[in-house]
Amino acid sequence: MGRNKISIQKIRDERIRNITYYKRKKGLIKKAMELSLLCDIDIFVGIYPKQISQNQLLIFSTKNINIFVDKYIRNPLIKKEIYGLKDVSKII
Amino acid sequence: MGRNKISIQKIRDERIRNITYYKRKKGLIKKAMELSLLCDIDIFVGIYPKQISQNQLLIFSTKNINIFVDKYIRNPLIKKEIYGLKDVSKII
User: Fold this and answer.
1) Are residues A27 and B27, on separate chains, in Cβ contact within 8 Å?
2) Are A36 and A42 in contact, with CB atoms under 8 Å apart?
3) Looking at residue B54, what is its pLDDT?
4) CB neighbours of residue A73 within 10 Å
């Protein structure tokens, strides 16, 4: 049994979209955790699933969230390399 | 040629650790981008590689960073589910 390549666009079927969300959310957190441990680095992941049943922010962070925000994200002394959905081809 | 399972702990060899960082960083951003598109959700990823050459914060965010921080992370009206390295077994 092979795996079909899926095209990366919004899944229309809500049920399938929710299943995909639950599976991939776990995968993403796992990858973040592994990268953090293997390379001894700080990582913050925030996931906000607007329409999906539990309307809450899921956070995985190796540091206290407020420390992450103030010491890293909002610290003008730290250089930042910022990418959005459109820029992803630049880093991948 | 098979793949060996690696144990998830800090890689001692700096060169290998840096290579792993560059590879896995791309993988993590790719997974975040895919999850965001497939499920139409907002995601923020912040990676801070302390010792690694470029000492800067790498951010991938589907929204403007300040909006993400103020509207989601620091919004007391939004419920938050927060996990650190120790809690990962609870979601994976």
Assistant:
1) no
2) yes
3) 63
4) 21
